[in-house]
Amino acid sequence: MKIQENAVVGMHYTLKNSDGEVIDSSEGGDVLSYLQGAGNIITGLEKALEGKEKGDKIDVSIEPEEGYGPHREELIQEAPVSAFQGVDNLEVGMGFQAETEQGPIPVRITAIEGETVTVDGNHELAGEKLFFSVSIEEVREATEDELAHGHIHGEGCNHDH
């Protein structure tokens, strides 16, 4: 079976940045499974995997626009330490939900200087060209339940099916 919309795909992958550093990998761990066409993985990788089948191995580079988007300066903001009430030890790298006019977005602390905290709402890989090495381990039809919920069911699924 070829990878097409509504197929469940199981794959191993290694993700590297433009410097060739490994950012993430499933090697030695569980296969990553997702529902093709449901937006479970980045657009560029979904497009690259369309039409492939079990046993295929591909290397693909993804531009930021089809990855985690361009780096947007307006998503970097400064806030006073007092805005983080209830958090005793603020540290660079900590993540929070920020309430915005567009709804909540995840942000992480990128700098702390005196009483000023800099937070960044960009995904850590925004603006980066991504390099994936993928091996397709499984391709199957999704169940009706999986299609109804928009994601696969199995390990780590946190609702009743």
Can you describe this structure?
The chain has 161 residues and is mainly beta. The chain folds into 2 domains: 7-68 and 126-149, Chitinase A, domain 3, CATH 3.10.50; 73-120, Thrombin, subunit H (Beta Barrel). It contains 2 helices and 9 strands, in the order E-E-E-H-E-E-E-E-E-E-H. The chain has helices at residues 43-49, 144-149; strands spanning 7-16, 22-25, 32-35, 57-62, 76-80, 95-100, 103-113, 116-120, 130-141. Strands 1, 2, 3, 4 and 9 form a 5-stranded antiparallel beta sheet that branches. The protein has a 4-stranded antiparallel beta sheet with strand order 5-8-7-6, with no helix packed on it. The longest helix is centred in the N-terminal third of the chain and has 7 residues, at 43-49.
Summarize the structure.
The chain has 161 residues and is mainly β. It has helices at residues 43-49, 144-149; strands spanning 7-16, 22-25, 32-35, 57-62, 76-80, 95-100, 103-113, 116-120, 130-141.
CATH names the topology of the largest domain as: Chitinase A, domain 3
- Distance between termini? 25 Å
Give unreliable regions as ranges.
Answer: none
Order of helices and strands: EEEHEEEEEEH
Query: What's the gyration radius in Å?
Result: 19 Å
Please outline the major beta sheet.
5 strands, antiparallel
Known CATH architecture of the largest domain: Roll
Shape: elongated
Secondary structure class reads mainly beta
Enumerate how many helices there are, as a single number: 2
Strand content: 35-45%
Helix content: under 10%
CATH class of the largest domain: Alpha Beta
Number of domains: 2
Total strands: 9
Mean pLDDT: 92
